[in-house]
Amino acid sequence: MAFAMTESMLPPLLDDIDEPPPLEDATDAPAASVPDNMAMRTPSPPRADALLSMIRSFTVDDDYFERRALRRTCIQNHPVDDFHPQYSEIIPGLFVADMYTATSSAVIRSLGITHVVSVLKNDCPQYPNDLQHICVPIEDRRSAGLLNHFDFVTDWIQQALQQGGQVMVHCVWGMSRSASVVIAVLMSLRRMSLDEAYRHIVSRRKIVRPNSGFMCQLKVYEQLLRAREARLKRPRMQRASAPMKVEGLQWR
């Protein structure tokens, strides 16, 4: 289904969104790339109190330091040298975590994870071939086009949950990119409003803080979902003839 977006009608923070590359399906990686004993490339723990963390998380927007303070709140009881894996179950079977936790084989086994979504621009981790894994190549920048991936990822996660799977969604800190994806899932699958979805995920994971550009895109996605739902409620003849519009989005 193709759609056109007119520049004059775009929200202020969406007018410079980068066109994202296609999703990378990590399940297509050669079998030899991951040992059978579930060894993974495990990164160092996320560092919340060093300048390097800005580079590691690709976070360069003006709210970086405010979000860094939230990350420090999360790890304040654990020194960086003794970082404990931290994950949050948002709804049954759906988890959000940082990259350090999401690449822990012990965590993967203990939670029975069957599907993983990595929301990372670079260095997507490798997983054993018996895990379903996709990579969403997005930076943690306000201009990154995460909106264009919401439908595919929410459908993929819905199918995994319907099959009884356990899904882990992660980025670097489990704070912005992965949280934004899960908020989209809550709006799509649980029919929550953006405000309801945001409050719910924060109640489960207090450090969640999508960057301002992602919040703007989530607002557009909320409007899109409402328009689709309204369209489905129309009589069939009206649905066939009327174009769908969502504040600047229009397609047939």
From TrEMBL:
Cited InterPro entries: Dual-sp_phosphatase_cat-dom (IPR000340), Prot-tyrosine_phosphatase-like (IPR029021), Tyr_Pase_AS (IPR016130), Tyr_Pase_dom (IPR000387), TYR_PHOSPHATASE_DUAL_dom (IPR020422)
Region of interest (Disordered), residue spans: 1-43
Example of a GO biological process term: negative regulation of MAPK cascade
Pfam families the UniProt entry points to: DSPc
Domain of life: Eukaryota
Keywords, alphabetical: Hydrolase, Protein phosphatase
Any single Gene Ontology cellular-component annotation: cytoplasm
Domain Tyrosine specific protein phosphatases: 147-205
Residue ranges annotated for the Tyrosine-protein phosphatase domain, each copy included: 86-227
Regions of compositional bias (Acidic residues) in chain numbering: 15-27
UniProt KW Hydrolase keyword: yes
Gene Ontology MF term list: protein tyrosine phosphatase activity
Assigned EC number: 3.1.3.48
PROSITE patterns documented for this protein: TYR_PHOSPHATASE_1, TYR_PHOSPHATASE_2, TYR_PHOSPHATASE_DUAL
Gene3D superfamilies documented for this protein: Protein tyrosine phosphatase superfamily
Family: Belongs to the protein-tyrosine phosphatase family. Non-receptor class dual specificity subfamily.
Protein name, as recorded: protein-tyrosine-phosphatase
Originating organism: Rhodofomes roseus
